[in-house]
Each structure stands twice: as structure tokens, then as C-alpha cells.
Design brief:
The structure is a single chain. By secondary structure, the chain is of the alpha+beta class. Helix content is 26%, strand content 36%. The strands form 9 sheets. Strands 12, 14, 16, 17 and 18 form a 5-stranded antiparallel sheet that branches. Strands 23, 25, 26, 27 and 28 form a 5-stranded antiparallel sheet that branches. The protein has a 4-stranded antiparallel sheet with strand order 1-3-6-5.
């Protein structure tokens, strides 16, 4: 029985070996060796590494970035070497990072471990054209694997150097980090048209596109001056303290898009104009350096966020052109542009000769009514027109500016009878029709009654020299019969009250001189002017904040507290309010020798306001009252120390 094997439980190969006369132990060893050889052969027949190359978009503008991803998938845990990447001229490699992921597969009872290593390159495009990126080669276990190149079309577009570190924000992001931020956070300045006539409206909107988690928006870092344009704000997200987000797809990628600002621009001179960039101060938490700045390697690894970065995002460069108005302007044209109508009314319509009449001439429609000049006055001797008082009522109609402009005259009729105020005519250019037009008011009928004839003064009789006689009674002498004049009191020059009054002109002169010096300093010394107004401005904003707290407007209350403290510190320190946040305020106050305790209170107020404005939650009345008193106390204390 020893060494025997039961038939049903013995492998066929083992039974065959035993039947051939080999001992049982030797047959078992041979079986193990065969199994190992088969497993080794199966390993040799494992699939070759898979190589895949992709770009985040195939059409970009000059100055923009392309993210190239090279993915290598293979079985096992062997290291993968760096790919050989052929980058064409016109592309700069800003940075490179890598990530590794694992997957497990089971087929026919066999478990396989698949390793995928992704090499991610950030490339900046420098020139227009059609380019092939690649081929890409990877060497593994002595063999070279090649992936086909990918084609990228580069078109003319704005050079987007739109992100820079915020001043005083600590360690600056590197070139690779800035390139990654620019790909996922930018402001698009978009006009509804790029070419208009002088005086015609173009509407410019600024939209923030974002793919960065936990982004916080603080304030504007820079606002354009719109040189060469008359500008009118139509919308500003900071006025309503809220950005409305929606999803948009840009170059095949999903972004959260939020409208920041809408401005109506009216060119004042012909020619091409390049607009200044709009700057926005933002911050966001970042991962550790080994993960990359924005850390998109793992969406769920939220615990990796650590420090906060502040950056200034700027809008793209924008060039607009204003065309001169065409020739052939009618007589009386003075530069009015738009779609305009004109009307007139007078009160009263029945007056006496010489009495005043109030005449109102209204110009209404769409366009820049502030630039509409006074219509030419009717020529004639029947009426006398005094210079008008002009007023403008502005309206917004679907991002088109319009409204009414009223010219109010005082008119004096010169002759009695049934008269008419002649029509007022207005010549303007219609940019939609591309032609000039003239509109006029209807004549206004008046009844002028004869006025009362003024009585003439009686003539003064002329006397001859001989008729003029000097009589003793004509001049009353001063007490000629008084032999002695009585003393009425101490002489004025010995009276202290009288002497004190002599100092009033001197004090008045000194006061006027001091006041003049004060006014001159207010005009010429910006820092002095800001310090002088800082307390009153802060108290006014705090009063507004208390009214908002009483009405239960939580978000508006915290915004007003933030503005009050930020504007107060900016005025006292003579620095821009746009960059005044918790960190910058703490740094500036520390340089002025303010105690750490007070600086900590300033930080706490700023942080509480930011949290309530951009991450709103229920806040009790007691918490708002505590925050208000803290801000009020900081204004008083810093007003004495800074």
C-alpha cells in the first residue's frame, strides 16, 4: 500500500509517468517542473505594454497651453522609464508631472494586476500653424514601443499671460504651477462687436471660467480706465455680492462660468484702441508639491489640501476699433449717435407779454444721451431763450443704454398776439441703418396777451444856479448851544472788550490761512486726504452695516463690515484697497508696530466676513452684534495707533 496512488485522484500526466516505470517521487518532481515551465511560458506570452497619447484639446490659440498625456499600461509592478517626446518648434515645455494608478482583472480564474503610469506635460504654444506632437517612444525590457503623433491646430489668439502671484502672498507658484492655473482659471473679456462707429455702443462682458476646487473670489485687483471710451457700468457681481455660476464647455472641457462685469463702451475718437486688463484677486487651497499645485490626480483626496495660494487673474488683451462717422452729415449735426426721438412741451400756453414760459425739450431713445448736444434754438425775434438746464435719466434695455435727456428753457415772449414756438430740430447718425437722420418737434401754439404799460416817473425840475440858495435851516448843527460835552464813559482804547475785538481779524486771517493750507493738502497730499476721511468713512459704513443687521440681511451685513475695515486700513496705511485682505493687512500693521493681539483681531474679523460672504450659513444676531462691536473697536483703536 505504501507509495500507491488511487486512480481517480491521480493526474493523468502523473499516472502516465508512473506507468512508464519512474518512481513516485521522481514523477512528482517532473510534474512540478512542467508546471513551472508552463507558467514561465505563460508569463513570456503576457501582453506587451500599451502606449496611449492624448491632448486635452486639438485647437488652441497662440500663447495658450496644451496638456499632453502619455499613458503606459502593463502587467506587474516593474518601473516604467521616461518617454522620449518629440516636441516641435513653436512649443515650450513648461512642466512635467506623473501619476500611477492600479487596476485588477480576473479572466478564467486568473488574476492580473494592471499598472498605468501617466506622464503629463504642460506645453505653451508660441506660433500659428498645424503641428504634430510626437512620435512618443517608451523603452521597456529592452524593447521600444512607439505611439503615433497627435496633431494640434494653432490659430491666432490672445497671448494669455493672465495669472500672476498676488503681492505679499508668500511663496510664488513656479512656472509649471502658473501654467496649470492658467489652464483652469481665466477671465474672458468678450465684446458683442469689435468694430463700431464713434459714439456707437459696444457691450463688453467679463466672464470668469474656473475648474479649480474651492476657489474664493476676494476683490478686483485692477479696473480698466477705458481710455478713448465713455464707459457706463451695466452690471457688477460685487454690487450684488454674488456670482451666478453655470456650466460651459470651452475647447471640449467643462468650466464653471460666472459673469463678473458688463460695461457699455462708447468710443470718443476714431482708431484702434487696446483695452487694459481687468484684474481679479482669488485664492484657493493647494496640495503638497509631490501632487502638483492643483492636485487633479485624485478627485477624492480632499485631505491633501494644505496651504492657500493667492493669485491675480487678468483678462485677455482686447483690441477694438472705432470707425469715423461717414461724410454727408446734415446741417446742424453735432455728434449725436443712436436711435433718437424729440418732443417739446410748454407751460403755460397763455401768458402776458414779458412773463416767462417754461419750455421742456426731451430727446429720448437708445445711445449715449450724455453726449447728445443741445438742439439748435429756433431763430427769430418773437422769443428770448435763456440757457437751458439739462438732466439725463438713464435706462438699460437688454444691455443697451438709453433713456431721456431733458433741456429746460425759460422763454420770454417779446410781442403780444397768437404766436408759435418754432420746431426744434435734431440731426443724428443711426449706426444700425448706417445713415444720418433728422427729427423735429411739433410747433407749440401760444397766446400772448398785452402786458400792463408801466407808469413813467415825474420829471425832476431843473434849478438854475441863482435859484439854489443855502439856508441856515438846511444844516442842523450838532448842539451848538452846549458849552461843555459830558464824558460818556471810559475811552474805547482803554476797554478790554474793545481791545479783544481787535484780535478777531487776526484770528480770522490765521483761520483762513490754516483752512487754505488744509484744502491744499487735501488736493495735493493723497495720504493726508485719505487719513482725514478714514474715520468718517468707516463710521458711515458701520452705520450701514448696523441697518443691514437690523433688517436681517446676513450676507450684505458681512460684506459691509469687510468693506468698512478694509477701506479704513487702506486709507490709514495709504495702500490700494483692492489688495487689502487678512494676510496683507497683518503684514502692514506689523510693520507699523501694532501688537499681535490687535493683528489677530483684524485677521479674525476678515476671516469671519469672508466665510459668511462666500460660504453663507445661519448666523445668529448675537454673533453679528459681536462682529460689529469688534470692527467698531478696531476702528477706534487703530485710529489712535496707525
Amino acid at each position: 500500500m505504501s507509495g500507491s496512488v488511487q486512480g481517480p485522484k491521480s493526474p493523468v500526466r502523473y499516472a502516465h509517468l508512473k506507468a512508464s516505470g519512474l518512481p513516485g517521487r521522481a514523477a512528482f518532481v517532473i510534474l512540478v517542473l512542467c508546471t513551472g515551465i508552463l507558467a514561465f511560458g505563460s508569463a513570456l506570452r503576457a501582453e506587451d505594454p500599451k502606449l496611449q497619447v492624448s491632448v486635452d484639446r486639438t485647437r488652441v490659440g497662440v500663447g495658450e497651453h496644451v496638456v499632453l498625456t502619455v499613458s503606459v499600461s502593463l502587467e506587474g509592478q516593474e518601473a516604467v522609464s521616461e518617454p522620449e517626446l518629440a516636441v516641435p518648434d513653436g512649443f515650450d515645455v513648461l512642466g512635467r508631472r506623473s501619476s500611477t494608478s492600479w487596476s485588477i482583472g480576473i479572466a478564467n480564474g486568473v488574476v492580473t494586476h494592471i499598472q498605468t503610469v501617466s506622464f503629463i506635460y504642460t506645453l505653451r504654444v508660441q506660433r500659428e500653424g498645424s503641428y504634430l506632437i510626437g512620435p512618443v517612444k517608451v523603452t521597456h525590457q529592452g524593447k521600444t514601443y512607439t505611439a503615433s503623433p497627435v496633431r494640434v491646430e494653432v490659430v491666432k489668439g490672445p497671448k494669455r499671460q493672465q495669472v500672476r502671484p498676488a503681492p505679499g502672498s508668500g511663496q510664488s507658484p513656479g512656472a509649471q504651477d502658473l501654467g496649470e492655473i492658467e489652464e483652469n482659471l481665466f477671465i474672458e473679456a468678450r465684446p458683442d462687436r469689435r468694430t463700431v462707429y464713434v459714439g456707437e455702443q459696444m457691450t463688453l462682458s467679463y466672464t470668469l471660467y474656473n475648474r479649480i476646487p474651492r476657489l474664493r473670489i476676494h476683490s478686483y485687483d485692477h479696473l480698466p480706465t477705458y481710455t478713448g471710451f465713455w464707459a457706463k457700468k451695466l452690471f457688477d457681481a460685487f454690487d450684488v455680492q454674488q456670482v451666478s455660476w453655470n456650466t460651459e464647455v470651452v475647447n471640449g472641457r467643462k468650466f464653471e462660468a460666472g459673469l463678473l462685469k458688463v460695461v457699455a463702451l462708447f468710443p470718443t475718437t476714431a482708431g484702434k484702441q487696446t483695452l487694459e486688463q481687468l484684474g481679479l484677486l482669488c485664492s484657493f487651497p493647494v496640495r503638497s508639491k509631490r501632487r502638483g499645485l492643483l492636485g487633479f490626480d485624485s478627485f477624492f483626496d480632499m485631505d491633501a489640501f494644505g496651504e492657500t495660494k493667492q493669485v491675480v487673474v487678468r483678462s485677455n488683451d482686447l483690441e477694438l476699433e472705432a470707425m469715423p462717422l461717414p461724410a454727408g452729415a446734415p446741417a446742424g449735426f453735432a455728434g449725436a449717435v443712436g436711435q433718437l426721438q424729440i418732443s417739446a412741451e410748454a407751460t403755460p400756453t397763455t401768458v402776458a407779454e414779458g412773463d416767462p414760459i417754461v419750455l421742456k425739450v426731451r430727446v429720448s431713445g437708445t445711445g449715449n444721451l450724455n453726449a447728445v448736444p443741445e438742439p439748435p434754438r429756433p431763430v427769430g425775434e418773437m422769443f428770448r431763450f435763456y440757457d437751458p438746464r439739462a438732466s439725463v435719466e438713464t435706462e438699460k434695455r437688454e444691455n443697451r443704454l438709453g433713456g431721456r435727456k431733458t433741456f429746460e428753457y425759460v422763454v420770454i415772449p417779446q410781442k403780444a398776439g397768437e404766436r408759435q414756438i418754432p420746431p426744434f430740430r435734431l440731426a443724428y447718425f443711426d449706426p444700425d441703418q448706417k445713415r444720418y437722420a433728422t427729427v423735429q418737434t411739433a410747433p407749440i401754439a401760444l397766446v400772448i396777451n398785452p402786458g400792463a404799460v408801466p407808469s413813467r416817473p415825474a420829471p425832476v425840475p431843473m434849478l438854475s444856479r441863482d435859484e439854489i440858495k443855502v439856508l441856515g435851516e438846511d444844516i442842523r448843527y450838532i448842539k451848538p448851544d452846549m458849552p461843555v460835552l459830558e464824558v460818556q464813559g471810559r475811552a474805547l482804547y482803554r476797554n478790554w472788550g474793545f481791545l479783544a475785538l481787535q484780535a478777531v481779524p487776526v484770528l480770522g486771517f490765521l483761520g483762513v490761512f490754516a483752512y487754505r493750507r488744509h484744502r491744499e493738502r487735501l488736493v495735493g497730499d493723497v495720504a493726508y486726504a485719505r487719513r482725514r476721511r478714514s474715520r468718517s468713512e468707516a463710521r458711515r459704513r458701520l452705520a450701514d452695516a448696523r441697518r443691514l443687521m437690523a433688517s436681517g440681511e446676513n450676507r450684505a451685513f458681512h460684506s459691509e463690515i469687510y468693506r468698512a475695515l478694509a477701506q479704513f486700513l487702506a486709507d490709514r496705511l495709504n495702500c490700494p484697497v483692492a489688495g487689502m485682505a487678512a494676510d496683507s493687512a497683518a503684514e502692514a500693521l506689523a510693520g507699523r508696530g501694532v501688537s499681535e493681539e490687535v493683528i489677530a483681531q483684524v485677521r479674525k474679523v476678515f476671516q469671519r466676513c469672508d466665510f459668511a460672504r462666500f460660504a453663507p450659513s445661519d448666523v445668529s444676531d448675537g454673533e453679528m452684534e459681536t462682529l460689529y462691536k469688534a470692527a467698531e473697536g478696531l476702528v477706534d483703536e487703530l485710529g489712535r495707533k496707525v
